[in-house]
Amino acid sequence: MLNKVPEVTAIFWAIKILSTTVGETGADYLAVHVGLGASLTAICLTGLLVAALLTQLRRRAYVPWIYWLTVVLVSIVGTQLTDLLTDKLDISLYISTAAFACALAATFALWFSVERTLSIHSIVTTRRELFYWTAILFTFALGTAAGDLSAEALGLGFQLGVVAFSALIAAVAVSYHFGANPVLTFWLAYILTRPLGASLGDLLSQSREYGGIGLGTIQTSIGFLSIIVGLVAWVTFEGDGARRAGPAQ
């Protein structure tokens, strides 16, 4: 089996942030504007996520459109999972943030105890791939809960949220540049891109009355999805051929 995940490049992070934004605006659109409600939206999209994940697992090599479709669906389902706990079950964001952090730490601990590595450059077995996607699901849930908690506790608006989480990601990038552990910095950045994408999505989609730009969830989701499709098409046909042909690291 070849490596089943993409290289971590600027395009990778661009698509990741865009997918988190779509996760925020898409979930809001389906639950509120379409009228499905949070529970039905979560059920329908979880079914789609399972189908996409099974398709991803059956492939023997990295296929960009399947991988990123799975990421987008994980983003939406992760958002819905946190929103259900907060809005329907009245579970405190402090508790859900701590619970998702523990779940993510347990996933990493089990992953390392079994595989003796957490490298995201060698996802070459189904077992490693299951650990990888479990960790990603919890990063989205943790990022949503921690982002909402930070915004609530610190009173961050959309604009300050974008600035604050961008600064934190920049700090992680600088620490990586100066020799910090690459696995740790990758997952920290992966977690932080979730609240950054959510803040960016809210900033663009929410009305001016609430401090947003007022593009609406439909326009924001369509616009970002179009960019994602364009970037994934570019990676598929131009940028990723050499990597897919090479051996797994």
Automatic annotation (TrEMBL):
Pfam families: DUF347. The chain crosses the membrane at residues 30-54, 61-81, 93-114, 130-147, 153-176, 183-201, 213-237. It comes from the Bacteria. This is Membrane-anchored protein. It comes from Bradyrhizobium guangzhouense. Keywords: Membrane, Transmembrane, Transmembrane helix.
